[in-house]
Amino acid sequence: MKAVAVRVRSVELFERPVTLRLPFRFGAATVTRCPQAFVRVEAEIGGRTLPGASAELMVPKWFDKNPALTHEQNFEQLREALRIARAAYLAADAPGSAWLLSDTAGEAAVAQGVARGLPRLAAQFGPAQLDKAVADAVLRAAGLGWCEGLRAGVLGDPWSARLTIASPSAVAVRHTVGLADRLGRDDPGPDPADGLPATLEDAVAAYGLRFFKLKLCGEVERDLERLGRIAALLARCAGSAWRVTLDGNETFADAAALGTFWRALAAAPALRGLLERTLLLEQPIARTRALAEPIAPLGLTLPVILDESDDHPEALERGLALGYRGISSKACKGLYRSLRSAARVAQDSQRLLLSGEDLTCQAGLAVQQDTLLAASLGITHVERNGHHYVDGFGVAPAAEAEVFAQRHPALYERRGGRARLAVHDGRLDLRDLHDPGFASAAQPDWASLQPIH
To answer: Are 366 and 57 in contact, with CB atoms under 8 Å apart?
Structure first.
């Protein structure tokens, strides 16, 4: 099947408030609430008009970590990125493939956002959401699911044909341990009334977890002390096969600061077991310096990958030249960015890594699309934390949550009267995400959402 020609006829932007059940601290930011963005398009394809949809949390202090900006100002940056993308995609007057639309209108939207003062990572947010919704419409027109559609080439991108696209039945969950998270059950702090896991120890027991993502604060002594406590807890509670990744979240100012941390970590006898089980270190250096100096001379014995620096198409190649060993897949940065990165990593799969990371993806469209994107590229464990920091579908109408639970009974379960992500034996069951469209046979309750004007 050849690429499907598409023209976007309408774009609607919405949001919904999300309140976290536990404070999520990463780097210098603590998040307790933020909106989730929703996009609905109508696309003209082969003489028919078909819908497409996407969703993503508008997390503050990730796209732009400028401490002078409030969280609300960060939200407005992402709303502006969405508005710019809407105008650019509607202005594309000639039908073309979904990827060509992204490569032209999407790149024009990014350039316009940067010209208006948005950081590139924030400017990418708008096209990334439009691209997912357009892909959803194209796949529905072709009658294919995400994995089948990639193999058939219906999106028209230049990378799918070079990849081995899996149709995954399951993926392992990599559980986030935020800087404000309680570790053991004896740690002081309130227990939420929802009955969901309140501590790392609770989460291990409830979900059968074996993979963990540990946030760093960038202060050597504090990080080593906390890593030691986490290692002791996992050794006691998580069996013998647990593995971790470390996330710097740009907390190290430069390569010298990273080198100081690495030497202290490697020299700590109590952390030797943890280091042996560490799979990678994610974006330790601030994006302003990460691609400006080599890290190869530091002599790190674990792979270091990029995340927040992935704000332009050449980020991975520049990183590889400096000693980085891979990059993250995140739908909020764009599905075509993930495909491009996967194709590059596949050229040297014994040395390079593509990891699956989270933007606190919420139950429904966001978690389904992001998870299937990563798993289809062969990623075997994906950071998932939306189900831990938010109770089920949050404030979404009960009827909306019920529709998603009915249409995707392997991915969700009903506990305590609410539909929630079903994590069993540390895994998510993806078998019912392969219907026509991009990973969803259900839709949000659009009438319950607030328009983004």
So the answer is: yes
| Distance, CA of 87 to CA of 111 (rounded, Å) | 13
- Band (pLDDT 50/70/90 cuts) for residue 440 is very high
Task: Count other Cβ atoms within 10 Å, centred on residue 274.
Answer: 22
Q: Residue 451: count other Cβ atoms within 10 Å of its Cβ.
A: 10
Strand order through the sheet with 7-26: 48-57, 29-45, 7-26, 450-451
Same domain, 102 and 236: no
- pLDDT tens digits, 16-74: 999 999 999 998 889 999 999 999 999 999 999 999 999 999 999 999 999 999 999 99
| Residue 41 · residue 8 · CB < 8 Å | yes
Average pLDDT over residues 95-103: 97
Average pLDDT over residues 87-111: 97
Q: Based on the fold, state whether residues 114 and 187 are members of the same structural domain.
A: no
Q: How many domains does the chain have?
A: 2
Same domain, 97 and 193: no
Mean pLDDT of the 344-365 span: 98
Same domain, 114 and 221: no
Do residues 249 and 215 make contact, with C-beta atoms less than 8 angstroms apart?
yes
From residue 163, alpha-carbon distances to 25, 341, 438 in Å are 36, 11, 18
The pairing of beta strand 29-45 with beta strand 48-57: antiparallel
- The Cα 71–Cα 64 span in angstroms is 10
Can you tell me the mean pLDDT for 252-281?
97
Q: Specify whether the CB–CB gap between 123 and 109 falls below 8 A.
A: yes
84 and 19 part of one domain: yes
Q: Do 68 and 170 belong together in one domain?
A: no
Report whether 282 contacts 257 (CB < 8 A): no
Q: How many CA atoms lie within 13 A of 82 on its CB side?
A: 29
Helix (H, G, I), strand (E, B) or coil at 229: helix
Task: Mention every residue, 6+ apart, whose C-beta is less than 8 A from residue 383.
Answer: 173, 174, 175, 176, 213, 245, 355, 356, 357, 358
235 lies in some domain: yes
Average pLDDT over residues 69-96: 97
Task: Please check whether residues 139 and 215 belong to one and the same domain.
Answer: no
Choose the final residue of a domain: 97, 114, 143.
143
Q: What is the pTM of this model?
A: 0.97
CATH of the domain at 344: 3.20.20.120
With respect to residue 2, please indicate whether it lies within any of the assigned structural domains: no
Residues spanned by the domain of 257: 160-451
Output the pLDDT for position 371: 98
The answer to whether residue 191 sits within a structural domain is yes
Query: Which pLDDT score is estimated for 336?
Result: 98
Q: Are 361 and 58 in contact (CB under 8 A)?
A: no
